[in-house]
Amino acid sequence: MPLMNDIHSLIVPVQNANFTAHSYTEIYCGVTSTLTLNGVSLTLGGGSSIKIKIANISASTGTTNCYLLGENIDNRTGSPTVY
Question: Residue 73, class by beta-carbon neighbours within 10 Å (0-12 exposed, 13-18 middle, 19+ buried)?
Answer without folding.
Answer: middle
